[in-house]
Design brief:
alpha+beta, Outer membrane lipoprotein wza fold like, wza like fold, 18 helices, 39 strands
């Protein structure tokens, strides 16, 4: 009997065809050895089948209890090492005797163990979050004004006028006929008071209580200035960041990618003028929704230190993750942070896997001690899950019967009683054998072969939690699909089911697109011929208006259905214009030679604040700089002009008179310019180079993304020009790089002497 397995192996795993007549299989099967059975088991495991699934296949060809027992014994003895894409532990599957919602486990489902995440890390990995601060909210009471802040001053009452001013680099705002008013460092309230006092010299009603003459003043922040903060320590991308002055510590941390694998979430330091002014606990936000309204100032330092205690919640909690714990926190605090225990857990005792010196031990904590027990770094914590598979006083049936599920044992003492309660065997019955799974109170699991035509087997007594599985033709289809692609709304692979038609497949894929050609739908089908030759058959189908095909074709496993495009379909092509212009939006590419110049000429209405120098094109995530000023003046023949393709994005930035200077300079910062200057001049304005700077590699990044580097000739350096909106970067010296050798110095000297001699000869 065992030799029948080899033939089944060939059919099951090579031809993948289970719809053949069982009697035919039996005729072709022969005896086999244990070694051949091992091959069968190995292939079954490679396909992701559980022991239960393999037993079902053996039962389908008439396997008896002794053969099933041999299969199970060999399976356990020869269990290979499982990969990360294998099914879960077979012993676990075996002990469950089927699934909660059926007896057959989906062979495609894989128990892939994901890497344990740190609690809160998903926030910083979410690319849909906008890290820029909300500007259309009330100005925080602790926000301090500074150079670069844009203010709106409204006077109303007896006099009505609105001033839009910006705090200068000196910290002042200017009004006609008044001396500059110094506002830097003041809160909104203090600044309002000072402005009211100074403007009362022009508007006498500001100091009056007379309702007729009275003038009120309202000060608001229109746009916050940019500030520079330093984020250091255990973050994903430490460095110096230029952010809005309205930014909170959470905005800044998001820009730096958040804490890394060892960075703390619970004790983040905000350092100002060399002193820690705040300690931020991000768990207050992640667990309780308390936003860290700590607003930053220029040159603040955010320090993320390594965590001290981190624990892992392994099972039985609503959130399974790595949680950071403070030194004074206990088990009950951790439970609260996780959201509590899950519903199917035993909550009276907690289990901790803990490293103790050179060994690992299990510590059991009673519920009464949750408020007193502290945790150690590396602890793995779990609640035990309650086994919910067993239902008291019940038996279960599934497969080829009309009613499946749990039935009362009292009324179903035998296999035959249970089948009758399930309204008998259905038409999809496959074979004469069934499997009775018995847990024996959770100890020694058993599987018993039942011959459905043997009255003695049908009289088999049932016990609590027995599960009877009757093989069905619907349940033996593993790893079989039909693919539909082309002009349907959701091209995809669909699990095969007997009886599927073209119309069914189109409906399951979301219907046809407007460009589908109903007269050209093709089915590609593999056909095996005698001698092992495989050929592909192509079947062309036409559909009427109701999606009814002209041929009655029943689909088969591995069929590929293609819905072709309607002839002469013309695809629309579009491009996008974004940024500082009157009418941003989506526009069509009018012809094959439509260019950047055409797009700007046809659809771009520049504003006073638009920067033509900074224009750039984004194509396939690549930024292409364009000198817009020269392009506009030179026209379509300009070397900066090129043809657009569908999906291009034209970006027109706003005029930016600031220059960011970063890298190895004495003081990273931002300066204002109204005309081009040398990069060296810009660097000198922030204190000059450091002793680690590489002067010959200084570069300037312009507003449109173009970069220019310092040109070097002998000992001379020609620094690039810096325009408004640029960034000046001074690289750091590589300490490992070899210093200039004596030979190189002699070579440079010789070359220089030669050049001088050449000059003198003219």
């Amino acid at each position: 009997m065992i030799k029948k397995i080899i033939f089944v192996t060939f059919l099951f795993f090579s031809l993948n065809s289970f719809g053949q007549d069982i009697n035919e299989l039996r005729k072709k099967a022969s005896s086999s050895s244990d070694s051949e059975l091992v091959v069968f088991i190995q292939k079954a495991k490679d396909q992701g089948l559980s022991l239960m699934d393999a037993e079902k296949q053996l039962i389908l060809i008439g396997g008896k209890a002794d053969e099933i027992k041999k299969l199970r014994d060999l399976w356990n003895k020869k269990l290979p090492k499982k990969s990360e894409t294998d099914l879960d532990d077979s012993n676990k599957i075996e002990s469950q005797f089927g699934e909660t919602e059926g007896f057959v486990k989906d062979s495609l489902s894989k128990d892939i163990e994901d890497e344990v995440k740190r609690f809160g890390s998903d926030f910083f990995k979410n690319k849909n979050i906008v890290e820029s601060p909300q500007l259309f909210v009330a100005t925080p009471s602790d926000y301090r004004l500074g150079p670069g802040d844009d203010l709106i001053i409204n006077l109303f009452g007896a006099s009505e006028i609105t001033y839009s001013v910006q705090i200068s680099r000196n910290g002042n705002v200017k009004f006609e006929k008044l001396a500059p008013v110094y506002l830097s460092g003041l809160s909104i309230r203090s600044a309002s008071k000072r402005l009211k006092q100074r403007l009362s010299k022009i508007y006498t009603g500001l100091g009056s209580n007379n309702q007729i003459e009275k003038v009120d003043l309202e000060l608001s922040l229109q746009k916050a200035r940019s500030i520079v903060v330093n984020i250091t320590g255990q973050v994903e991308a430490p460095g110096t960041y230029t952010i809005s002055g309205f930014s909170s510590v959470l905005n800044a941390l998001y820009a730096a990618g958040g804490p890394n694998d060892v960075g703390t979430y619970r004790d983040i330091n905000i350092i100002r003028n060399g002193r820690v002014i705040h300690n931020v606990d991000l768990y207050d936000y992640f667990s309780n929704g308390i936003y860290p309204n700590i607003y930053l100032r220029d040159q603040d330092v955010i320090l993320v230190k390594p965590y001290e205690i981190e624990t892992e919640l392994v099972s039985g909690f609503k959130q399974l993750a790595l949680f950071e714990i403070k030194k004074d926190e206990v088990v009950s605090d951790l439970i609260n942070l996780s959201g509590g225990a899950s519903s199917n857990t035993y909550r009276s005792k907690l289990f901790i896997e803990r490293f103790d010196d050179f060994s690992q031990k299990i510590v059991e904590i009673d519920e009464k001690d949750f408020n007193d027990t502290k945790l150690n770094d590396g602890d793995k914590i779990s609640f035990k899950e309650i086994n919910s598979e067993s239902i008291s006083g019940a038996v279960k049936i599934g497969g080829a019967v009309y009613l499946t599920g749990n039935f009362q044992l009292e009324n179903n003492k035998s296999v035959n009683d249970l089948i009758n309660s399930a309204k008998g065997l259905s038409n999809d019955l496959l074979g004469d054998n069934a499997i009775l799974y018995r847990s024996n109170k959770g100890l020694d699991n058993q599987s018993i072969s039942i011959n459905l035509k043997d009255n003695n087997d049908l009289s088999t007594q049932l016990f609590e939690n027995d599960s009877l599985y009757i093989p069905s033709s619907k349940d033996i289809l593993f790893d079989q699909f039909i693919e539909i692609k082309g002009e349907v709304n959701f091209p995809k692979e669909i699990d095969f089911r007997f009886g599927y038609t073209i119309t069914d497949l189109i409906i399951l894929s979301g219907g046809l697109t407007p460009y589908a050609n109903k007269n050209d739908i093709r089915i590609f089908r593999n056909i095996s011929k005698e001698g092992g030759e495989n050929v592909t058959e192509e079947i062309i189908i036409k559909l009427d208006e109701n999606l009814n095909p002209n041929k009655k074709i029943v689909l088969k496993p591995d069929d590929i259905v293609t819905v072709n495009t309607y002839p002469y379909r013309k695809t629309n092509k579009f491009y996008t214009i974004e940024g500082e212009l009157a009418l941003p939006g989506l526009y069509s590419i009018k012809n094959q030679t439509y260019s950047v110049y055409d797009a700007i000429k046809d659809n771009v209405e520049f504003l006073k604040s638009s920067s033509t120098d900074g224009i750039s094109i984004v194509r396939d995530s690549i930024r292409i700089p364009v000198n817009g000023t020269k392009l506009i003046s030179q026209g379509s023949n300009s070397k900066f002009n090129f043809e657009l393709v569908s999906g291009d994005k034209i970006i027109i930035p706003a005029i930016n008179n600031t220059v960011v200077i970063s890298g190895e300079v004495q003081q990273e910062g931002i300066i204002n310019i109204d005309k081009p200057i040398s990069a060296k001049t810009a660097i000198e304005s922030v204190g000059g180079f450091t002793n680690k700077s590489v002067k010959r590699e200084v570069y300037v990044e312009y507003q449109n993304g173009l970069r220019k580097v310092t040109r070097n000739f002998l000992f001379f350096k020609f620094y690039p020009r810096v325009f408004p909106g640029s960034k000046v970067v001074v690289p750091e010296k590589d300490e490992n790089k070899d210093k200039t050798s004596v030979g190189e110095i002699v070579g440079y000297t010789t070359s220089l002497v030669s050049i001088i001699a050449l000059i003198k000869s003219f």
